[in-house]
């Protein structure tokens, strides 16, 4: 009797299956249009959520998929914000080109920084990324002649999108613009993580020392994803500038980097939509709790974070996916 050897699954076929759009994803994007019709008073908040979600997705690419723990990604967010603001102040307020230039500038800085990032690990990596953020913050603060310092950058004025859609107080154009950018960012991120490059990133996250043994250029992969992540973070910062016509030092603060890590923990790292879900929960909770208690609302955020970590250590989406697998 001949026993046939089990056939190995084709990784390309597995990636193709994973890259298909699920019903839940389509339902999410349909639901994202509801603020236009049902929650018009919350459109400014919704645009802020979309911008921050794009920033959270950029961090998830390096933290959740490549295992690069960073506490300084606000540096790229702030660089994108100031770049878009300075371009507009110089007399060119066209939003799309400003967005692209700001993202490319943040990506260039990210590429330069990646040569240091790939050479350190663990605690040293956290300290290096945090140091980058603090240095950039103090540099922007000291260069008040360029950045406005603690007063923020003044004179920012963004032109209508495509010369038609003007940014208004109600936030229709701002939300549509931010939502479109988030959608494109997620499409690009899905393409990355559901590719052979994405599999290499997962391998680096699980065991970086074994990757050279199978011929993987792990440093090159880390540099690529760190640069891509910096571009996305810079675009998120530019979106904030263009939709609010303001730039402040807060865009470069450590608090912004810490908040986005909290969002990823809430939603679940290594899951692109976990970054979006975590952002929605965090920012809606912050909006409601700050109205209830303007001084001590972080207490409730901390309590929420502790409950999620203790009961759902993989984050909300990660734990729900685990429950679904057990049920199946």
Structural description of this entry:
This protein has a domain at 39-253. It is an all-alpha fold and 328 residues long. It has 14 helices and no strands. The protein has helices at residues 11-18, 23-31, 43-65, 74-89, 95-117, 122-142, 144-147, 172-193, 196-206, 218-244, 254-267, 272-292, 297-311, 315-327.
State the gist of this model:
Keywords: Cell membrane, Membrane, Transmembrane, Transmembrane helix. Helix content is 69%, strand content 0%.
Task: Provide key terms for this protein.
single chain; 328 residues; mainly alpha; 0% strand; transmembrane helix; Branched-chain amino acid transport system permease protein; transmembrane; membrane; branched-chain amino acid transmembrane transporter activity
């Amino acid at each position: 009797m001949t026993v046939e050897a089990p056939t190995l699954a084709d990784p390309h076929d597995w990636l193709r299956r994973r890259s298909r759009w699920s019903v839940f994803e389509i339902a999410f994007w349909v639901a994202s249009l509801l603020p236009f019709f049902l929650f018009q008073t919350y459109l400014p908040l919704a645009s802020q959520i979309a911008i921050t979600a794009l920033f959270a997705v950029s961090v998830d690419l390096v933290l959740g998929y490549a295992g690069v723990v960073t506490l300084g990604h606000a540096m790229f967010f702030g660089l994108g914000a100031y770049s878009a603001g300075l371009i507009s102040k110089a007399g060119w307020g066209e939003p799309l080109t400003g967005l692209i230039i700001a993202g490319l500038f943040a990506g260039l800085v990210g590429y330069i920084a990646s040569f240091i990032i790939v050479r350190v690990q663990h605690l040293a990596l956290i300290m290096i990324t945090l140091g980058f953020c603090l240095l950039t913050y103090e540099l922007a603060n000291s260069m008040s002649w360029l950045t406005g310092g603690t007063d923020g950058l003044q004179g920012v004025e963004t032109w209508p999108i495509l010369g038609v859609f003007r940014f208004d107080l109600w936030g229709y154009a701002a939300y549509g613009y931010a939502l479109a950018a988030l959608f494109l960012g997620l499409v690009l991120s899905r393409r990355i993580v559901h590719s052979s490059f994405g599999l290499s990133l997962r391998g680096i996250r699980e065991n970086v020392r074994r990757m050279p043994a199978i011929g993987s250029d792990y440093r090159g992969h880390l540099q690529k994803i760190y640069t891509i992540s910096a571009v996305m973070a810079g675009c998120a910062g530019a979106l904030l500038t263009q939709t609010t016509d303001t730039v402040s030092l807060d865009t470069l603060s450590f608090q912004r980097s810490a908040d986005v890590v909290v969002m990823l923990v809430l939603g679940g790292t290594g899951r692109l939509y976990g970054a979006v879900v975590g952002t929605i929960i965090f920012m809606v909770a912050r909006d409601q709790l700050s109205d209830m208690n303007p001084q001590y609302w972080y207490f409730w955020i901390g309590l929420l974070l502790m409950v999620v970590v203790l009961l759902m250590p993989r984050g909300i989406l990660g734990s729900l996916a685990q429950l679904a697998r057990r049920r199946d």
